[in-house]
Structure formats: structure tokens, C-alpha cells
Amino acid sequence: MEQFAKDIVQFIDDRKEKTWEISDHVWGYAESRFSEFKSSKEESEYMESLGFKVTRGIGGEDTAFVAEFGRGKPIIGILGEYDALSGLSQEADVAERKEIIPGGDGHGCGHNLLGMASIAATVGLKDYMEKNGVKGTIRFYGCPAEENAGGKAFLVREGCFDDVDICISWHPGTTNAVNRGSSLANFRIFYTFHGLSSHAAGAPHLGRSALDAVELMDVGVNYMREHMIDEARIHYAIINSGGTAPNVVQSEAQVLYAIRAPKVTDVVELAERVSNCARGAALMTGTTVDIRHVAAYSNLIPNDVIGDVLDKYLHEFIPMDLTEEDLAYAKKFTEVITPLDRAALENQAKALVGKGWKEFLDANPVLNFVIDGRLLKGGGSTDVGDVSWVVPTSQIGTSTLAAGTPGHAWQVVAQGKGPVAHKAMIAASKVMACAAYEFLTTPKLVEEATEEWKDRLGGETYPNPLPKEMKPEIW
User: Fold this and answer.
1) Alpha-carbon dihedral of residues 124, 130, 131, 135, nearest 10 degrees?
2) Residue 145: left if φ>0, alpha if ψ -120 to 50, beta else—which one?
3) CATH number 3.90.550.10 given to 185-297
4) pLDDT digits (tens, 9 = 90+) for 137-190
């Protein structure tokens, strides 16, 4: 390991207890989209106390901020998040479902770790730059509402990344790998139907059911599935069924749709077809429909130049130094995953090691080694994709969770303050900081990453999928 990397690692290690402490605080705040006031405040004040220039409320988002150090080019951005998920309140370190607040929020995607590891990387790099007179600029972007609202898309639309040369990010998970693939573009749209209420037995002919409209819309969309590309995904949740009395015709009902496809241009076309199903359902039932678009995510543009540098440092800092106690902690969570998640884990182990997969899983409750990101299949969406359309961007994952842990589940929340999570977030911070330093000090690397980015775009420009009237909002 080169000397600069050793020094950056030492700076990160010197502050790791503080990193863990604030991450645990954010875990406890568990604030969902655009309401991350305590999380944003503590993280931004921490960076301000260390000499960063902090600008709050960027991009029209009250809980977004940027913390900057240095001057001049290149400008390297490191992305962080700190929003939680609704309905996932859960006690820490407990391998059974135990809510702290019934129906409350919880960090079911590990964003308490995500933000603070990215901050640790930025702070460690700043300490090294300051001591050694390194030129250039580093920025930490505190990004709200990644879950369900696509907060970064608003920041991109408002030009917050226009002068950035390279962006680096990470995500907690069950594997150590560079994200070599793309992600699904994704729109979130509310459809609210308005009808007429009446007594369902005494005067049904006077009613116009909004719930009928929702159900007919859902049927129409389900028939659409045969006639869309295989890679597309459409899912929905009925948010308001119109009440609990079956003898009253429901005058209002609402459904929320998530519409995904490999490219944002595909989603635009699919969303219009879904909206036509809603309009048709309204026509059939004599109701009206309001269509409200609340979030838009673009597909991720991967970058192998950045990815290769990140991969080099993943191999430097992985495997982590996990103790027998750490492995025992993780093992209790591998034993409480669902049979379907267990089957998926077994298939992954078979692909990795072949015949000895049973012994492998027994010995490896944490996948504490680097996996080729090309072997991993994704299906989710991320607003890092929007950033990648305007800045060359790459992302890693590290094993903060026991093998097989499902995403967006109580098991993720339960492990969010555990020893494996703490060690993996520090490993991620070291990978990002060392990689960022290479781009900060090697102009040729920046040029190569930019050329690859341009080649992948093939002349396309950011499609800006957000309607002009859409603003960041809590919904």
C-alpha cells in the first residue's frame, strides 16, 4: 500500500469511533424522505466543526447540504444519504421482529451507515490534503429522500453537480463489489379517483365508485404486462381504498404506482400507457382521476475507469478483520431469513463455489471477500443514476449485513448498529477516500473516466424526467 493510502487510512481510523457514534444517532432518528432534519443537522454540523464550508438547503431541499474543502479543479464529489424507510421500526441487535415504535420508521436500507462512511472518506481525505498541501476540491453531498422520492434528481435538475468532475458513492449490503451494471429507471405516480357516494343497497344507481376505478385500472395494467418489454417492472399499492364500510359506495380511492424499465425513455412511454389505463377506468366508472407524479429516477450510467480504481482498493481493505464474535453475531441473522431468501442465498453460494456450497455458507455468515460486480444482478432503482447522467460516477457495496439478508426488511434495521456494519462502513470509507485521492491527483484518470462516460452516453443528454411543476415534498 502506498504511503498516501496508509496516511489516509490512519486519519479515518483516528475518527472511526465518532463515525460510528453519529451513524448510530442517525439510526435512532430514523427520519424518512425530506424529513431528515436531525440527521442532516448533526452530519452537517460535524463537517462544519472540522473546517468544511457547508451550504444547507441546496436544490430546494431543506435537508440537503454540501460540505466543501479545497479550491480549484478537479472537483471530486462523494455522495451520502441518511433517509429511513416507513414501517420498519425495529430494535437493534435482536434476531426477531420487535418494533420500537409500532408502525414507526427504520433504516431498512442502511442509510445511517451510508452517509457517515461517505463523510468519513471525505474527512480523511481532507485531513491528508491539508497536511500535504494537495490541490483540488472535495465535496460531500448530503442527499435526502433516496427512498421513494429520488432526492438527487432534484439536485441534478437545479445544477448542484454541474461543475463536478467525478462522483463516488457506496451502499451497504451483503457483498463487497463494484457496481458494474445499470439500474432501472423508475417513476412514482399517485392516481386519485373521485366518484359519488351513495347507499350501496338502497341507492346503488346513484353512486360512482372510486374503488371500482382503482380496481379496473389495476386490471388494465395487469393486462398490459404481456405487451411491454421483459425487463420492465410495474408494481402498485392501494393507499386509500375509500373506507371500511362495504354498504357505502366509495367516493374516493387512491393507488400509488412504481413504473420501472432499463432506460428512463422506456419509463416515459410506459407511464403514459399506465395513465391511459387510469383515464379509461375513470371513463368506465363515471369517475374522475387526478394524476400526480411525485418521483423520477434515471437509469445508472456505469463507469469502469472509476470502477477499476475502486476495485483495486476493495481488494486492499477486504477481507475485513472480523472476530469470532462478529461472525456469531451475523450467524444469528442468517438463521431468520425467509425460505425464499435462503434459496436465493444457496443459489448464490452454488455459483460462487460449486459443490462445497453448504460448508461454505456455514463457514461464511458474512461474505467477507470481493466479488466481481459483473456477476451480480440488480433490479432496483437509485437516484445515483440521475447524477451519473451529468457526472462520471461509480459505486461500491460492502458487506454490512449477514449473508442472505433481504433489503428493505427489519433484519437490516436490526443489524444497523452491529459490529459487522461498523467495520464494513469504515472499509467502504477507506476505499472511497483512496480512490478519490487518485482522481484528485491524476488528471489522466479524470480524462479517461470522462471519455468513457461520453462514449456510454453516445451523444444523449440528461433526460430530466421531473415535470417542471414537481417540487421536493413530504408525501
Assistant:
1) 110
2) left
3) no
4) 999 999 999 998 999 999 999 999 999 999 999 999 999 999 999 999 999 999
Residues 218, 220: Cα–Cα separation, whole Å? 5
Tell me how far CA of residue 305 lies from CA of 77, 139, 144, 372, 375, in angstroms: 16, 20, 27, 15, 18
pLDDT of the residue at 119: 98
In whole angstroms, give the CA distance from residue 75 to residue 68. 10
User: How much is the pLDDT for 376?
Assistant: 84
User: In this predicted structure, what is the pLDDT of residue 201?
Assistant: 95
Length of the chain: 475
Query: In CATH terms, are 3-181+300-457 and 185-297 the same topology?
Result: no
Side-by-side strand order, sheet with 65-71? 53-56, 65-71, 136-143, 75-81, 166-173, 393-399, 177-178
Q: What is the DSSP string of 400-443?
A: -S-TTPPSSSHHHHHTTTSHHHHHHHHHHHHHHHHHHHHHHH-H
CATH no., domain 3-181+300-457: 3.40.630.10
Q: What is the end-to-end Cα distance of the chain in Å, rounded?
A: 48
- pLDDT tens for 205-218 read 999 999 999 999 99
Q: Does pTM surpass 0.70?
A: yes
Low-confidence ranges of the chain (pLDDT < 70): none
Q: Which three cell numbers stand for residue 37?
A: 432534519
Pairing state between β 393-399 and 166-173: parallel
Structural domain boundaries of the chain? 3-181+300-457, 185-297
pLDDT value at position 445?
Answer: 98
Q: Rounded distance, CA 212 to CA 218, Å?
A: 10
